[in-house]
């Protein structure tokens, strides 16, 4: 199995980015013990006051898929849904580098 990575973008409803980020960061402990999660980092876009970017690296695509079935992750998604205006993801294949 090869590592699995993704760049995600969440666009919060106008003026709700900080609330969304706080909710996501408060629940980030869920990922601390998540099997196969190497890193999951939340970023605030500097060029758009509503956008958050997420970088993820997993041991495999299977571990990522399993995380999306996790009860705590599903609960977090449900709690955050009303703050999210849209989102997208770019799946990438990591090749190497520092931290990899």
From TrEMBL:
Q: What is the lineage of its organism?
A: Bacteria, Bacillati, Bacillota, Bacilli, Bacillales
Q: Which residues form the ABM domain?
A: 4-92
Instruction: Name it.
Output: Antibiotic biosynthesis monooxygenase
Q: Which UniProt keywords apply?
A: Monooxygenase, Oxidoreductase
**InterPro entries in the cross-refs:** ABM_dom (IPR007138), Dimeric_a/b-barrel (IPR011008)
A GO molecular function annotation here is: monooxygenase activity
Superkingdom per UniProt = Bacteria
Concerning Pfam families, the annotation shows: ABM
